[in-house]
Amino acid sequence: MMLPELLALWHVALAEALLLVALLVAINGLDDLAIDSLWLLMPRHRRKPQLFAPTPPPESPSGSPSPRFAILIPAWDESAVIGAMLQRLLARLDWPDYAVFVGLYPNDPKGQAAVAALTDSRLHAVVGAAPGPTTKADCLNSLWRAALAEEATSGQPFDAIVLHDAEDVVHAQELAVFAAHLPQSAMVQLPVLPLPDADSPLISGHYIDEFAEAHAKDLLVRHWLGAAVPAAGVGVAIDRAMLGRIADARGGAPFDAASLTEDYELGQHVHALGGRGCLVWVMADGQPVATREHFPASFEAAVRQKSRWLTGIALAGWDRIGWRGGMINRWMLLRDRKAPMMALLTLAAYVIAALLGVDELLRAASPAAARLPPVAGAVTRALLWLNFALLCWRLLVRALFTLSVHGLTEALLATPRALVGNLINAMAALRALSRYRQALRSGRRLAWDKTSHRFPGLLP
To answer: What is the rounded CA–CA span in Å between residue 255 and residue 219?
Structure first.
C-alpha cells in the first residue's frame, strides 16, 4: 500500500474514532448535567444541611432508653487500627444503649488480641468459623447471627443495625441522628468525609472531591426522585425489622457472602421491599455529623479498592440485581453501571488527543497528509465544543461541592485531582474487567480484596 493510501486510511480511522468518542462523552456529560439540573430544582431545604440539637433519648414503656443499636464492624487483618478505633468509639459515642460486634478470624491472632485488650461490656468479639479472608458480607453475616444471639440472651431486641469499618472515625452524635430519622426511613446513611492526607493530596485527596459531589448532590437527588439510595457501608443504619425481612428472604443471612459490594446491594434490597433509604446532612456543634476516614494514599491501593467497587457494582451487580424498579431506578442503575465504560472512554479520549498531535506532525512533515481534510468535521467540532463546555461545568461543579464541604484549600485541588482520578478509574476498570473474567472462567468466588487502613493519631 502506497503512502497516500496509508495516510488516507489513517485519516478515516482517526476521524471516525474521534467522532465516536466525542459522541459518547457528550451523552455522558448530558447525563451528568441532568443530575445537576435536578439538584438545582430540588426544594432548598433538601439541599441544605439541617441544624441538629441532640435531645434526650425517648423512654420506652418499660423505662429503658430506646432505640437500641447494634454496631457491626468486620475486621479482617485490622490489628493496626481496630484497637484505636474501638477505644475512641466507646469513649465518644453519645448514646446510652448500644452494643458493638467486631468480626474477627481464627487466623488473625493480632486482631483478636487488639480487641481483647479493651474491656467494655458493650463490646463483643465474634470469631468466625472460617479462616480469613472471606468476603466482608460473610463476616457481616456472622455478626448478624451474634446480634441475634445477644437479643435472645438479653431479651432486648435491637431497633436498628449500624455498619462501620475498622478505620472509621465515628461522630459522637451519630446514633442520635439515626434515632431521629429512622422512624421515617428504613435506612439512614450519613455522609462520608475522607480525611485530607498531606502526604497524598492528589491520590488520597481525589476521594474528597468524589464523595463531596456524590453525597452532597447525587444521593440527595436519588432520594428526592424515590430511587434506591445505595449504602456506603459505613455510617449507615438499617431498621432491624427491615434487615430481618431481607434475612428471611435470603435464608437467614441478610448479606450475600458472594457479594463484594454488600453495602450497595443493601440499598437496592431495602428499596425492593418497599423501604425508603435516605442520606441526611445535619450539623452539630458547627460540624457535619458524618463518618470520617483515611482513604488509600498510593496509586496501586486506590486502583485495588476501586476495582473491587466496580466489580461488585457495575459487573457482578448487573448479574445479581438485574434491572429492577421503575424507570427512575433503572436510570440510576445505568449510571452506576456505566462507570467502567466511561473510565475506559476517558482513557481512549486521552489516547486520541495524543494521536491528534501525531496527526499534526504528519501534516507538517508530509504534503500528502497536509492535503487531507481536517480530522474533525462540522458535527465532530460541534460535539467537541459541547464537551469542552460540559467539562468546564463539571470541573466547576466538583470544585464548588468540595468548597462547600471541605473549604477553599481542597477546592483549589479539585481540578488537578480530576485528572488523577480519571487515571485511577481507568486502571481500576481494566483490573475489574480482568478479575471478573477470571472469576467467570474459574467459577471461584472472589475473595475480600481489602486495602490497608490507617487511623488518625490525634483527633478532637
So the answer is: 22
